[in-house]
Amino acid sequence: MAKLEIINNPLIKTKLTLIRDKRTTSKDFYSNLTDIAMLMSPFVFKDINLEEVKVVTPICETAGYEVKDKILLVVILRAGLGFLEGFRKTIPEAKIGFLGMYRDEETLLPHEYYKRLPKDLSNYKIYILDPMLATGGSAVDACNSLVKYGAKDISFVGLVGAPEGIEKLNKEYPQVNIYLASLDEKLNESGYIVPGLGDCGDRVFGM
Questions:
Q1: The one catalytic residue among 20, 78, 90, 199
Q2: Can 202 be counted among the known catalytic residues?
Q3: Which domain holds residue 66?
Q4: Is the preceding omega at residue 78 within 30 degrees of 0, hence cis?
Q5: What pLDDT does residue 9 have?
Q6: 107 catalytic residue (yes or no)
Q7: pTM score, two decimals?
Q8: Does the active-site annotation cover 103?
Q9: Does residue 203 have an active-site annotation?
Q10: What is the pLDDT, as a whole number, of residue 191?
Q11: In whole angstroms, how far apart are CA 130 and each of 55, 140, 178, 181?
């Protein structure tokens, strides 16, 4: 089974506290979400491969490094957009893909309405960006879409997750690594994470 890593960082904890607070404005919510993504990046990308290159400093020539792997960040619309900037700042070499999904409020099932991905994903290291891992439905559907394009190396990167969502993703795709800033308590009867932070997309975009 793939690993579940809860990134235990004091700066992430303080910023996550601000994000949870219902009084936090949309502007500050987005700013802190971006900061958290940047703070998570060293842990999320620690296993990527590098290749050695030559670089000339003002003093002399020396060895340097570039990212060797083909990296694809897959954003789950729309909440994932709020998570993208911080990761893109830390790994600008990455390509960006998009999956548009919305949740049926009655069935809690995800429905895909948009997809923009490279045609062949077999050689990419793929990171699904979605701040919330709640029921796990969107994460599993995202993996389903990616596998159809040949994806073999997939990780899920979220802000907060519920045990129910983690269990579902592990059951359907045990090879997918999961990175979270917090493992929360449970889902409520409406499928929202408890204590959670509300609807992440609404809070990022103000509606």
A1: 199
A2: yes
A3: 4-205
A4: yes
A5: 93
A6: yes
A7: 0.93
A8: yes
A9: no
A10: 87
A11: 36, 12, 11, 12
Q: Is the pLDDT of residue 45 over 80?
A: yes
Say how far apart CA 55 and CA 66 lie, in whole Å. Answer: 11
β-bridge mates for residue 182, sequence order: 160
We report the CATH number of the domain holding residue 47 as 3.40.50.2020
Question: Distance between alpha carbon 163 and the CA centroid of its chain, in Å?
Answer: 17
Active-site residue identified among 21, 47, 120, 202: 202
The active-site residue, picked from 24, 28, 90, 103, is 103
Question: Distance between CA 196 and CA 79 in Å, rounded?
Answer: 14
* Length of the chain as a residue count: 207
* Of 47, 104, 107, 120, catalytic: 107
Number of domains in the chain: 1
Please give the structure tokens belonging to residue 16: 């996550």
3-state secondary structure of 113: strand
What is the b/e burial string over 112-136, where b = at least 16 CB atoms within 10 angstroms of the residue's CB?
A: eeebebbeebeebbbbbbbbbbbbb
